Write a sequence for this structure.
């Protein structure tokens, strides 16, 4: 699954990938930089298409990841992100999101209600405020001041499922492909800059006020433009406990490949929770500065989408610990 760019260059077959994308000239040695975008779960395929429009025309990774994350956010059929997202146990849809660019600029929102595109609010926090994180009522107030529209996010379908859940009120989160989960998306652009974004409605039927890993820089997302980027999905509490995405990037800094770094982060969760980890899902994606990528999860079933010149836009299933 991992494709090192050096190997890619050694193959000497760059020209054969030319129909898939433009080759981009980079620095004095004119190395062809291939943009890459990777994102979590099946809906990553559609997200990647939007991101790729930007990357393949020489655009910035930051714009690409925002555009990609907005796709499942705006889709009412996706019940784990944005519009149509599963509510908390009081029936309120509360959204978490963050974004990070190549200059270590960051923005985040948590427990944001009524706004379809929290990732874009997170970007506004990053670009228009002296802060990096707004939550709840204040985040909503800020979003409205920036021209975002107040909307009802609870769809009939999500309301029906929540009312069904209320009958037993059992909170047993097993996040996996059957409910698609959070989108985490990281990209490398033609100028060899990295950015990432993450957005979610969080664990279905969570307690009111609960915030997961998805809006927390270092937990569900981290970008270091010298090294690489990482993102996560799954039971956020466990990702926060190991500051997962930061860990993955730091492991890469110490020499791990993206694949090895994702595996070591998952192993850290198993070490923390040898019993509980058997029954929960956490998945990591990592992308290095040179376009190499990796993925690993606790359980089988964690899919991710890669859009890169040599593969096109493809879905893979990550290897898993269990
Ligand atoms: C959270 N990490 O709120 C998110 C949810 C998720 O797979 O990704 N579920 O904890």
């Amino acid at each position: 699954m991992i494709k090192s760019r050096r190997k890619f260059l050694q193959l000497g077959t760059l020209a054969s990938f030319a129909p898939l994308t433009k080759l981009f000239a980079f620095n004095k040695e004119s190395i062809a930089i291939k943009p890459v975008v990777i994102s979590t779960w099946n809906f990553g395929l559609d997200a990647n298409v939007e991101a790729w429009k930007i990357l393949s025309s020489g655009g910035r990774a930051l714009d690409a990841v925002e555009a990609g994350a907005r796709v499942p956010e705006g889709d009412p059929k996706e019940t784990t992100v944005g519009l149509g997202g599963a509510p908390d146990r009081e029936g309120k849809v509360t959204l978490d999101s963050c974004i990070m660019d190549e200059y270590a600029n960051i923005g985040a929102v948590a427990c944001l209600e009524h706004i379809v595109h929290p990732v874009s609010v997170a970007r506004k926090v990053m670009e228009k405020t002296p802060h990096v994180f707004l939550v709840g009522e204040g985040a909503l107030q800020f979003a409205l001041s920036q021209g975002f529209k107040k909307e009802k996010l609870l769809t009939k379908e999500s309301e029906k499922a929540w009312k069904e859940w209320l009958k037993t009120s059992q909170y047993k989160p097993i996040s996996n492909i059957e409910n698609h989960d959070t989108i985490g998306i990281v990209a490398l652009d033609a100028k060899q800059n990295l950015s990432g974004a993450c957005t979610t409605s969080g664990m279905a039927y969570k307690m009111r006020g609960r915030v997961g890993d998805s809006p927390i820089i270092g937990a569900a997302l981290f970008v270091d433009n010298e090294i690489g980027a990482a993102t996560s999905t799954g039971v956020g509490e466990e990702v926060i406990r190991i500051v997962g995405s930061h860990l993955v990037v730091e492991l890469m800094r110490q020499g791990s490949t993206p694949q090895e770094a994702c595996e070591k982060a998952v192993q850290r969760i198993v070490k923390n929770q040898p019993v509980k980890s058997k029954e929960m899902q956490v998945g990591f994606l990592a992308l290095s500065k040179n376009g190499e990528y990796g993925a690993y999860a606790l359980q089988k079933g964690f899919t991710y989408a890669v859009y890169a010149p040599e593969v096109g836009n493809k879905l893979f299933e990550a290897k898993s610990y269990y």
Observations:
- The first strand starts at residue 24 and ends at 26.
- Residues 175, 181-182, 200, 202-203, 212-214, 233-236 surround N-hydroxy-L-asparagine (CB under 6 Å).
- The domain at 32-312 is CATH 3.60.20.30 (Glutamine Phosphoribosylpyrophosphate, subunit 1, domain 1).
